[in-house]
Amino acid sequence: MAKKINTNSESYLKMYSQMVKIRSFEDQANQLYLDAKMPGLTHMYSGEEAVAVGICEALTVKDKITSTHRGHGHCVAKGAELKQMFCELLGKEEGYCRGKGGSMHIADQSNGNLGANAIVGGSMGIATGSALRAKLNGDSDVTVCFFGDGATAQGLLYEVMNMAALWNLPVIYACENNGYSEYTATDEIAAGDILDRARAFGIEAHKVDGQDVLAINKLATDLVARARKGEGPFFIELITYRYHGHHVGDINRTYYRSKEEEEDWKKNKDPIKILGDWLVSEKIASDDELQIIRDDIAAEAHVAVQYALEASYPNSNEVDMHVYMETN
Amino acid sequence: MRSITLSQAVNEAIAEEMRLDSSVFLIGEDVAEAGTPFKITTGLVEEFGTERVIDTPISEPGFMGLAVGAAMTGSRPIVDIMFGDFLFLIMDQLCNQAAKAHYMSGGKLNVPLVVRTNLGATRRSAAQHSQSLHALVSHIPGLKVAMPSSAYEAKGLLKTAIRDDNPVVIFEDKLMYQDKADVPEDEYLIPFGEAAVLQEGNQVTLIGTSSMRQVCEEAALILSDEKISVEIIDPRTLVPLDEKTILNSAKKTGRVIVVDEGHQNFGVTAEIASRISEKAFYYLDAPVIRMGAMDVPVPFSPVLEDLTVPTAEKVASNARKIVAGELVHEL
Ligand SMILES: Cc1ncc(C[n+]2csc(CCOP(=O)(O)OP(=O)(O)O)c2C)c(N)n1
Ligand SMILES: [Mg+2]
């Protein structure tokens, strides 16, 4: 463990570990796809780890999040177990959703993750409704709504932001701006400044470097505390980048995004490297210690994936189970 | 004759109609440079430019509404809805606006547009990317609904759809995009409301829409080994529905199984079965059997997903039973 130089060093190391955990999960998931062991397609979060971790580390287990099609990072950051996540990706019975949801629908209710969503923007109402419940019940939890830059084109966002602002709901809209909506640069399909859209409703809006986990965490901690006091809603735009294609099958992508651009982000703006360098320079951890963290987590991810590969599929009688909740 | 994929057939239909009629344009997400995620519209933006091949933000209700307005005022938009599941996002513009404008205006307005979208499970895409929602729009008066079952139908039906003066929703099976079929080089159209009799027979009629045509054909192969004579019908359009061809076949064979990939409850199979029951009842030797997708959201896990769709084996087994005079459903 690290030398206790800073009272926050434990939390910094936790953030480091959580980001590494997401990266390791995604590396394994990508490999499952390449080895044709994963059914369907999946969207990698690699490169965006600081966003999920910086925000979720400002939350308690009671706080809620809603996630997206690119949701593995949010899920891990909110506290999920890798084994159950891999089981879900492979459609196994022990998965978070008993194999019924898959990558795009992982929900982990025990940690306050109300679910990934395969409809772009589909969770904006859900997140805002969760915040409405908190207000109505006098609960102190906050809900964070994660969505992409492309999702800001969905009209639903403007309907719910209006209501959230009218009613001071404890919701934080977290826009992960990775520059692209599928195969199109979002600049080409988004007019004006995204922050101005939130400000039009009188919502306090911030832009933050999405690769700087400490800056994100500082901002999120402040906004979450204020949202708990009824000062919400808030809007954050996080400038980030996805390292992989839109999904694992999007390999030939130079027609919409250059290799140089990708290399630049990976080399110069990697969130794990940025935090790692800082931890070393602040003497919170040594290079060797960070290497051990990375190796341990990579090993954990490897064990989890092997477990999931051998786990069993759901029984066929589950197919028509859970369509309706059993009520007595 | 040359053989091309369903995706190429769709591409050709759009290109040909855009060449013929400058009021036709294509609008949707990633339809231009990317050519859609299924690579269907590749090359169109190079030929027709970004004015007529329009990439949109992820704003389905918005661009659907634009298409309705443009259609009302002289354009003939083709709207690309990437997955059939996203129809739920455009329902107001499609069903309250496009479908009703002609009627509500006493025939003064009309909305000549095409919504191109898809259906079909077993792609391991889970519950929000696998639905077959054609029954939903077939329920709305004012909309026409086409269901191509191969590259040949895809081209001919889409060209007819683009020339139709009404809103048309055309569903392609996303699992068939790479499937090839013989498609003439010369121009052809497939009229709406004309079913195809794909195989003649006299003991049992299998009616299969879209993806389920292949399932019926495979079932017929299984049954031919057992010397059961099967007639296969592909309705090709649900609205209008070629009732005549369907009823004639029902009267001839006296036994019908309707196979469709939409949910079975309140679905297309129910509609077709009830028309046969109402209008050919006295010719029937067995109840009309409906075979739709299981009434569950499409599960992700392959082992569960495969259970939700009709298969050739199940169709053949039901056909065997009704031909033998056995019950499919307990009394
Ligand atoms: C309503 C809807 N429209 C279109 C899609 C297809 N689609 C999936 S992801 C995506 C791009 C989303 O971009 P963004 O919100 O920026 O998220 P990112 O993928 O960049 O994380 C699109 C268009 C969808 N899933 N849902
Ligand atoms: Mg994006």
Structure description:
The complex is a heterodimer of chains A (328) and B (331). Chain A is of the alpha/beta class and 328 residues long. Chain A has a single domain (9-315), classed as 3-Layer(aba) Sandwich (Rossmann fold). Chain A has 11 helices and 7 strands. A 5-stranded parallel beta sheet of chain A has the order 1-2-3-7-6, sandwiched between helices. Chain A has a two-stranded antiparallel sheet with strand order 4-5. In chain A, helix 1 crosses helix 2 (49-56), helix 1 crosses helix 11 (287-310) and helix 4 crosses helix 11. Chain A is globular. With 331 residues, chain B is of the alpha/beta class. Chain B folds into 2 domains: 3-182, 3-Layer(aba) Sandwich (Rossmann fold), CATH 3.40.50; 196-323, Rossmann fold, CATH 3.40.50.920. In chain B, 36% of the residues lie in helices and 19% in strands. In chain B, strand 2 (24-28), helix 2 and strand 3 form a beta-alpha-beta unit. In chain B, 56% of the residues are buried. The chains are: A alpha/beta (328), B alpha/beta (331). Bound molecules: thiamine diphosphate and magnesium ion. Residues 148-150, 178, 180-181 of chain A line the site of magnesium ion (MG). Thiamine diphosphate sits between chains A (69-70, 118-120, 147-151, 178, 180-182, 246) and B (29, 58, 60, 82, 86, 89).
